[in-house]
Amino acid sequence: MALDVDRLCFARGSQEILDEISFAAKPGEITVILGPNGVGKTTLLKCLNRILAPSRGEVRIKGRDTGRMAPRQIARHIAYVAQQSETAHITAFDAILLGRKPHMGMLPRPEDLEKVDAVITHLGLEDLSLKPLTRMSGGELQKVCIARALAQETDILLMDEPTASLDLKNEMRILSLIRHIVEDHHMAAVITMHDLNAALRYGHRFLFLKDGRLHATGAINEVTPAMISEVYGMNVEILHHNGLPLVVPVDSRAA
Ligand SMILES: Nc1ncnc2c1ncn2[C@@H]1O[C@H](COP(=O)(O)OP(=O)(O)OP(=O)(O)O)[C@@H](O)[C@H]1O
After folding, report:
1. Which of 18, 165, 179, 254 is deepest in the core (most CB within 10 A)?
2. What's the domain range around 61?
3. ABC transporter domain: which residues (predicted)?
4. How far is the CA of 37 from the centre of ligand 1 (A)?
């Protein structure tokens, strides 16, 4: 496994946010964390790369406890795309170059610049390369953030609501891009999402959080309407259209 999470707990003061969360993220797969607002999805992601320190339990990268690793070492294995990306007045090229920081000293080496060029070409971002982040649309910015994560050359990718501010077309494009990257580069991705239909379309494995605990997990063919209803407090059906699952709310009463 690329990433093993073992009985992870996180508390803020006396408030227990995450309670005994265990799962493993596999290379070549997108693991999607699902659950209602405020359940702890972002908190869990931040515990995975130790932006937040779990109060109990372990997160292991290829068997190594992240609690015993320096932040720079963790950053060589885990790239993190936060929910609100920074929009500093720097170009896309420079933003992507920041992804090389865990690998370089004070100054970029020729191989760092070559890596950034290669990622820009791979994602077709040549036209954006010299554009400042402050003048980018949400979709453009998200692509730059993904490019920076790729330039970081990690085996694990964490993304917090990567399509939150995107229109339908860009949402599909970005999720398709993430899925291709994960499969082609054999990365293990863990992402949070609210759009259940997009999640079921592009994810491989699903974790449902409820009341701070892992309520249910499963691959695409193991997700049931009951799991969704119990977690979101709303009755749903799962229909199929052209082989794709579609979650349809049945009524708005609490399940
Ligand atoms: N900086 C903070 N200080 C105090 N409490 C916080 C902080 N950040 C989050 N919380 C609380 O921790 C809990 C989990 O928040 P978190 O952001 O992880 O949830 P989430 O599932 O990602 O929510 P959403 O779907 O709305 O983004 C919530 O009760 C939230 O109010």
Report:
1. 18
2. 3-224
3. 3-236
4. 8
Report which protein residue has its CA nearest ligand 1's atom 11.
38
Tell me which of 14, 32, 34, 43 to substitute to probe ligand 1's pocket, judged by most ligand atoms within 8 Å of the beta carbon.
43
pTM above 0.90, yes or no: yes
CB under 8 Å to 129, separation ≥6 — which residues?
A: 91, 92, 93, 120
Whether residue 234 is contained in a domain is answered as no
Q: What is the domain count for the chain?
A: 1
- Rounded distance from Cα 212 to ligand 1 centre (Å): 11
Longest dimension (CA), the chain: 59
Nearest CA to ligand 1 atom 29: 38
Could you tell me if the ipTM is greater than 0.90? yes
pLDDT in tens, 43-63: 999 999 999 999 999 999 999
CA of 46 to the centre of ligand 1 (A): 11
With the CA atoms of 53, 56, 62 and 63 taken in that order, what torsion angle do they form, in degrees rounded to the nearest 10?
Answer: 140
Average confidence score pLDDT of the chain? 92
Give yes or no for residue 147 having a pLDDT over 50: yes
Q: Say if ligand 1 is within 6 A of residue 37 CB.
A: yes
Is 214 inside any structural domain?
yes
